[in-house]
Structure of Arginine biosynthesis bifunctional protein ArgJ, mitochondrial:
Amino acid sequence: MFAKRFFSTSPRTLIDKSRFIPKTGFYPRGYKVGAVSSGVKKGNTLDMSMLVSDYPASAAACFTTNKFKAAPVVADKATLDANQGSGIRAIVANSGCANSVTGEGGLEDAYKMISTVDESLGIASKDKNSSLVMSTGVIGQRLPMDKIVSGIAKLAKGDLLGSDHEHWLTCARGIMTTDTFPKLVSKKFSMGGTEYALAGLAKGAGMICPNMATLLGFFVTDAPVEPSALQKILSHAVSKSFNCISVDGDMSTNDTISALANGAAGGELITKSHPDYSILENEVTEFAKQLAQLVVHDGEGSTKFITLRIKDATTYEDAKKVANSISNSPLFKTAMYGEDANWGRILCATGYAGAEVNPAKTNVSFIPTDGTAQLDLLVNGEPQNVDEARASEILRRENLEISIDLGTGGGESCEFWTCDLSHDYVKINGDYRS
Amino acid sequence: MFAKRFFSTSPRTLIDKSRFIPKTGFYPRGYKVGAVSSGVKKGNTLDMSMLVSDYPASAAACFTTNKFKAAPVVADKATLDANQGSGIRAIVANSGCANSVTGEGGLEDAYKMISTVDESLGIASKDKNSSLVMSTGVIGQRLPMDKIVSGIAKLAKGDLLGSDHEHWLTCARGIMTTDTFPKLVSKKFSMGGTEYALAGLAKGAGMICPNMATLLGFFVTDAPVEPSALQKILSHAVSKSFNCISVDGDMSTNDTISALANGAAGGELITKSHPDYSILENEVTEFAKQLAQLVVHDGEGSTKFITLRIKDATTYEDAKKVANSISNSPLFKTAMYGEDANWGRILCATGYAGAEVNPAKTNVSFIPTDGTAQLDLLVNGEPQNVDEARASEILRRENLEISIDLGTGGGESCEFWTCDLSHDYVKINGDYRS
């Protein structure tokens, strides 16, 4: 069976990803969105997205921890600090060029991009910037500023912006790089008797690793949220979602997930001490998990969506270390691609993760996603006589789930999402720039 | 150009690895070596190697740090402890089954393997084991002990053992798994007016990562060396060689590098305070680097041999962290495979390594291995206008060298060897067990 997979032109094309593209949505009030082809990317491809809030919004962001922070990351951080998270009116993101490791000139470009947005939209204030910018694409090349400036001008005119489902989808398309489908989620929720909406966009298919690799995303809501509460909610949500996914273990210089809350739907201001704070935190977190999972579903060249459940670790950090180690192991990932129940590779990656493990109490099982009985591979450190036919049956599915119980008695656990490593990953990344 | 590579049946077959197999050698006195087909592997393949010393030898070993230590690792460690590193007479290594994560039964198997060697060779002592055992291959399967026992018996009879070059090559072949060529090095050296020899064998092509992944190897010399001096020399040599290579970032449960010194060539006993200690340490270290580099040359599916030179780090550990991070980045490795000068990926992996870096003082260059002028990619944090034709010219070579200067002022550096990530890696590892 592997031979068949290997010699097929592309296993990936066999998987229909269009089911991940929503056909409709519930979108927050007071936002207009859209995208344009600015010319940064070759061809007539959408490569710049804009989101404008009708009202000054509370804003928060989580940025990459890479030591080489891209220019837009540095600029956005400064903007949020200067504004103390208030008064943000727009987000502009371009694909095709990451404006990363571009020296002093690149930082000037990022600030020029911000001021162009502010001026074009008429939201410039004397002493503070009012917009956030994001860039994704090739590292080490300067932004073609003429194209960036004219792209912003085209979007700011307004006729490409709107609040329909199609506008949101277009906005999600404008930030795609090697993504094969736009990543957009939305939902309604109630809080304190008022109905709100949340929308989220993301891009990212390679360079995806805990701590958010080439990942750009933003959440927006029409709920009124105090800036520091929004930051706390976003940080929590990201730690349980975008920091719990890995495609290839590479963490980019540009990762940014930001959030805006413009209060357009009215209701009470959510602060950290408001009784509804935990409702909102929970809504945003579950929502972020959905969006993060879409990124894994579109993992470069991936053919499998794998959920890892690490159990009974000493600490949550240890559980995450193990998940991270397994999900970054090329041997594990290629075995999943080959639908090979070579579970020794799971154990091996568990053992070098640097986490506390009790080998004599460790359990590993495949959990079929169709609800049938789980298949135990290792029970209390003893390998089981595995029914290979049953293992193959489970591994043939697109969605896989693996439980690893570390047996430490600590009781901490984590959920983590990853994908396999295929021929197409090598193909996509061996020739990305051409 | 990439397209041509991609559609060729296997770029790897284009590279002649036979040049890495020595045609002759200088071997230490007092050892007999050989290999047999025991039947652990399918077909009539060599899968068990034996080395016997005519005299009780000092012994040392470096083992995996994986939490799931394979049974032979546990058993060998106990043997060396009980003997305080003296009186070892033989090493037996099998391929095809790693005897790892095999529970209590697997540990009994490892001890049974040791006692079988001791009894068959007539070197059994009442209270101590006199041999070391190693296993490599699939994890989680029990050793077929009948085949192991009869294989040992065949080797112990002696007619398959000898001390010629061909015997040493055969011994190196017996421990191969996905290796495409046997890894054997030998040399003469002088110390205190006496001529000695060193021979080294290793296997390992996948699961190779710092801290020695599925790597089995042993060095033997006819110099007389005190056990604790031998351990110190081996640990130093391994830290600069086998712990400075990475094929895929996976660290196995079985890694073992051991060393024997039987003193058959006479001369003064080398202790830690002997004036010739540093001569021997240096000889073994340079020798270990040679052997470790052979492992990278045979990296699963690899088409490039890459030397990373990390400079001006705060500490040696930081330099190694950066080298490790770059060499384990699938994005870096696929770019090298695609001969794509996408140096942003080098920077990116440097930035998330967790080491001290001064972005504004960081320099990255390609160093052509033909002695022509280096190509600067990043100078003091500023990207250079890279001549792509020149970059392609450099990247077309099989041997690549990259210099990364972290600009911290700390002055620490490290050398590290790795390879690219190709279609063949995915092919080999997606279907290893079949």
About this structure: Chain A has two domains: 19-297, 305-430.
